Amino acid sequence: MRFLIDFFPILLFVGAYKLQDIYVATAVLMAATVVQTGIIYALDRRLQTLHKVTLALVLVFGMLTLFLQDERFIKWKPTVLYGSMALVLAVALWGWGKNFLQMLLGSQLQLPKPVWNKLTVAWVGYFAFMAAINAYVAAYFSTEDWVNFKLWGYVFPLVFIVGQGLYIARYLSATEETAAKPPHD
What we know:
Radius of gyration: 19 Å
Low-confidence stretches: 175-185
Protein name: Inner membrane-spanning protein YciB
Shape: globular
Transmembrane segments: 22-43, 50-68, 80-97, 118-139, 151-169
Mean pLDDT: 88
Strand content: under 5%
Subcellular location: Cell inner membrane
Family: Belongs to the YciB family.
Function: Plays a role in cell envelope biogenesis, maintenance of cell envelope integrity and membrane homeostasis.
Order of helices and strands: HHHHHHHH
């Protein structure tokens, strides 16, 4: 269900582009992201920082695209988002000694600190990769190719998240086994 909520603005964006143009698609993306954010808020009664940042960037870059009639703004929005996420996680971990990933997910996942650090480094790399690949496609390919990339590019997060799941699975089962054992007398 969450995947569908995350995916539907992109799907509507691509559909609107195929039926109309980048400007109609941008307006659809803006509206769909507002609806998506509303649905997430209705389900969770709160918004995570990533949802707020995504909404703000979609609205700001979308408005710039529409008002200036310049598609480069909406094409570069993912690069700004991914680059910012990589930068924030990296500065927090290596500059401030804070693991934002652990702070966000630590109540849901009990993992050793070195594993949290490796996961954060992996996320920094993933976000940097996604920023770079979007920048490359936005700069060197047509708008049609970039829009198609937005759709099939969802393979990258799927592969990354499955990889993360496989990596942490061994730590989760070890934690569950330890928690299931009765205490020694």
